[in-house]
Amino acid sequence: MLNTNSEYLRPEIMDVLRAFDMEEEEFTHYFSYSGGKFFNSIQYGVRFFDFEDKFDPADDIEFKRYAKRFAKLAFYKVLSEIKGINLPWGALTGIRPTKLAYMEKASGRDFKELFEKLCVSKENIALVEKILQVQNGVCSGGKSLYISIPFCPTKCDYCSFITAPVDKTKQYIEKYVDCLVREIESIEPLVKGVSSVYIGGGTPFVLENEYLRRIYEAVAAVVKDDAEYTVEAGRPDVFTPEKLELSKRYGVNRICVNPQSFNDDTLKAIGRKHTCEQTLHAYAEAAAYGFDINVDLIAGLADETYSDFQKSVEKAISLDPTNITVHTLSLKSGAKLKENLKRLHVNGIEEMISVSRRLLTTAGYEPYYLYRQKYQAGGYENVGWCKHGKACLYNIDVMEEFADNIAVGANAISKRVFAKEERIERYATPKDIPTYLSKIDSIISKRIELFK
Ligand code: SF4
After folding, report:
1. Is any ligand 1 atom within 6 A of the Cβ of residue 206?
2. Is the beta carbon of 39 within 6 A of some atom in ligand 1?
3. What is the per-residue pLDDT across 211-252, written as a single tens digit (0 to 9) for each?
């Protein structure tokens, strides 16, 4: 249990305690500020720790930002000493390390100094530096369009997304597509100059051809620009030549084939109901149409060993896709995995991440975006890798919050970026499909209002 004299620091401190599995332990924390110095005192049992950090905040917002930062750092140092371990991202608990690096750069500071102070590992500082280099000149600064397809063949046991097996939701699909088409028509005035379109899921290819065609047609009627166009087609078992043909015809230029693992036992264990053979078949079909292809992998699935994971990375590389995304398994509320597990301990996760970085770099891939989620195994992250010049613009714009994102469908968060004011306004649609369907009129007008 945490006792603190500064309640507003509690959520940040709890993030650090959770990262070390220490949130049930008793700590007493006292924070104060005086004369440009931030003081954090921590008591754990009979041990006392005192920290002092100098910084002169420009205003109240900066004061709070640094108070949180120094409190987290104090706890990180205490817990690291007690447990005798370092975490790869040190006291940095946010989901967008690269965004923090950009903020430091914009303030005229070298982000590396802050990251070193926050005890981020040398490898991760180098990773962020490389990503910033690769992103240089790639972001559009324009806007992007996201279309949400919350349907999947079955539910993977690690997934917390609002998707449900299509057997249970197929009665909504027709009405869902009707609403989606109405939404897309309504945003015609907003999507002028759009630089990327992303149809994501879920598993968009679970939709029957006719529904897919209606969505593509609606997009084609409003997006007139020469935009990057991605479909996160999804699981290999729903790929068909007709869906690929349709995608090509409507201008899709990037497709995601998501195996997650090339180990059949793992796929069975996580409830994915497809095989490695089907992945290879789907990949070959998609490649024949000339799409840029992204392949997703997850480190830490089921009881995979280091060697199982290494084989998956090698297999993905051998297919020669333009993009490979390496996720680290995370424990999320709403996932079946979370029902049976309180903690996520993955043997060898450090080596898995390390080998993925080494093999991908050797094969000529560059890291181009990264994000973190809460409760990821070993405190690691998700990294998108690409062949030189093949970064996915949508992923960069959205992850770094460089561009407005006009998002339609259920569980879609539209964002309007006010870069000069360093402010973002959001509008989120309902997660639940029946609620989304019943509120479609107000959803349409609220989104127009956001971008007016
Ligand atoms: S395919 Fe993706 S969205 Fe669908 S259940 Fe599995 S992880 Fe979740």
Report:
1. no
2. no
3. 999 999 999 999 988 899 999 998 999 999 999 999 999 999
Residue to probe by mutation, ligand 1, list 148, 160, 163, 205, most atoms within 8 Å of CB: 163
Which structure tokens are listed for 256? Answer: 């995601």
Q: Does CATH place domain 143-408 in 3.30.365.10?
A: no
- Indicate if the pLDDT at residue 113 is higher than 70: yes
Ligand 1 site, residue 327, Cβ cutoff 6 A = no
Q: What is the pLDDT of residues 45-102, one digit of tens each?
A: 999 999 999 999 989 998 999 999 999 999 999 999 999 999 999 999 888 999 999 9
- Asked if residue 202 has its Cβ within 6 Å of ligand 1, the reply is yes
Give ranges for CATH 3.30.160 in the chain. 1-85
Model pTM greater than 0.90?
yes
- Topology, domain 1-85: Double Stranded RNA Binding Domain (3.30.160)
